[in-house]
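Quick one:
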Amino acid sequence: MPDRSRGGIASRPWWPGLKRVLTCAFFALVAWLIVKHARQIEWSDVFVAMQRYTTPTLLAAAALALASHAVYGSYDVLGRHYAGHDLRIRQVIGVTFVSYAFNLNFGSLVGGFAFRYRLYSRLGLDTAVITRVLALSLTTNWLGYLALGGTLFLLRPLELPPDWKLGSGGLRWLGASMLATSLAYLALCAFARRRSFNLRGHDFTLPGARLALLQLVLSMLNWALIGGVVFMLLQRQIGYPTVLAVLLVAAVAGVIAHVPAGLGVLEAVFVALLSHRVPTTELLAALLTYRAIYYLAPLAVAVPLYLTMEARARRAGCAGGQAVGPRAQSS
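Output:
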């Protein structure tokens, strides 16, 4: 059990209630934005705009999406080294691809957690090793988010709509705190004498400095590639840094709202922040096409791949085959 005697925010009796209230208020705001803008949209015009995309534009967006999924697959390859198991790299990438596709479409509890635990356990890894892989993957994903988002918000804050009260100064402070958090993690990995910590009952061991730098580079590259997909589909009407910054805001909004696949949240944030610069129909056309390329197309591949993995695991079990187990820990 974690020690709650130190007086942290999470241990205070009023914090869980306040957190629920804030979460509900945020979700209500997002829902209001979705309903408000949905009523004003001519959906026939959105579908017409989607049909105007040229083949080269769609192929470029698909190539960037494929590169992003490949980079995300490397997170668990880092986790293979960090947790110290002997699964083949192609097995690791297969598990990560399937998990990520289901994560995008059905939420992190289904894809990020349930599928990883099931598929890795089928391959012979125990719960402790899987937890280490998952912890490193999650840390990698948000490390790059903090560093990239912090840099953008600090150096190139978003041009917010004229009627918004939050100015560039607030965004710069947010960016500075995000960037400082990512740098603090790197400093801990490089210089901390104490390498292991207990977080809510789970042990977490800091990776070495080289592994932490790889985490940072790969995650920043992945977020940059995702932003590139949307940028291509918006046909370069808005600068890439702005598109990427809005995407990063939408990403964390989707996590807070706990909506599977961020349905409606992504669109609401983009419309709220960019509709004064790009027609709403063109924004929605780009985002719906982005969902088709980045979310649905990988899911169409992941479903048969997952069924194949399950069938192979059953055959191996019936034949008495032994899956590859963990080796000695390395970092």
